Amino acid sequence: MEGGWRVARLEYRRILLKLSGEALARPGGVGVDISRAEHVARQVAEVRALGVEIAVVIGAGNLWRGRDVMARGMQRATADYMGMVGTVMNALALQDAMERMGLVTRLQTAIEMREVAEPYIRARALTHLAQGRVVIFGGGTGNPYFTTDTAAALRAMEIEADALLKATKVDGVYSDDPMVNPEAHRYPRLTYIEALNMGLKVMDSTALSLCMDNDLPIIVFRLDEPRSVQRTVLGEQIGTVVLGGADL
Questions:
Q1: DSSP state of 196
Q2: Whose CA is closest to 165, among 247, 44, 83?
Q3: Whole-angstrom Cα distance, residue 159 to residue 15?
Q4: What's the pLDDT tens digit per position in 14-49?
Q5: How many helices (H) and strands (E) are present in the chain, helices listed first?
Q6: DSSP secondary structure string for all residues of 199-219
């Protein structure tokens, strides 16, 4: 059976996929482009067809930039709560695209919005994953002062994911911004300590430290590479892998 050998080759059987809000953005990086949501949904559907259990955390940078309004005087907590609401809007758009492609999904939020989502309950999320549903986590951690990177790391630990896959606009972690510096060097593999000490933009330091403390692999890759999520779970290195030193 074809599905059998595919499952046997999997590098990761349960993943947490971290998406930026820009993954759904219209040209210019703002708003929600339904075709972009469908692009992400297709990638997820390809991976679900292999038997991989998938949870998703998405940011809200396409809808809300808290840093900009904080510079004009808004309190950090208020800006962060507004960002959490933005992540739920993106999660709903992504859920709609996935459901239209035949995926069975559940949206859970850290801030209760019972009319549109389940409240986050770890045991329920684990049950959904075991039954083949794609679980989308909205609302960040439910607390201000934490990024969606940290939410992704936290949820990955809670669902006992094999790896955290961070989809970005570039094909890995670089020594500098490759969009600005064409001489920037891409790292195929890094340790958590190297990433922290060099100040590399893998994830924020809280999220990176949490992954390090719990030995959770992080794979950073370009979302728009063909079949990028599928190739990653099958063990192909198309980005940067961040691990403990003993695993390199």
A1: H
A2: 44
A3: 9
A4: 999 999 999 999 888 899 999 999 999 999 999 999
A5: 9, 11
A6: T-SSS-HHHHHHHHHTT--EE
**CATH number of the domain enclosing 212:** 3.40.1160.10
Q: Are 129 and 53 in contact (CB under 8 A)?
A: yes
Sign of the alpha-carbon torsion through 168, 62, 111, 141: positive
- Look at the block and give the residue holding tokens 């190739």: 231
Strands (E), the chain: 14-19, 53-58, 105-109, 118-119, 134-138, 163-168, 173-174, 186-187, 189-191, 218-222, 240-243
Tokens read off for 81: 């709560």
Helix residue ranges per DSSP H, 101-183: 122-130, 148-158
> Into how many domains does the chain fold?
1
pTM value surpassing 0.70: yes
Range of the domain at 208: 2-247
CB 108 within 8 A of CB 138: yes
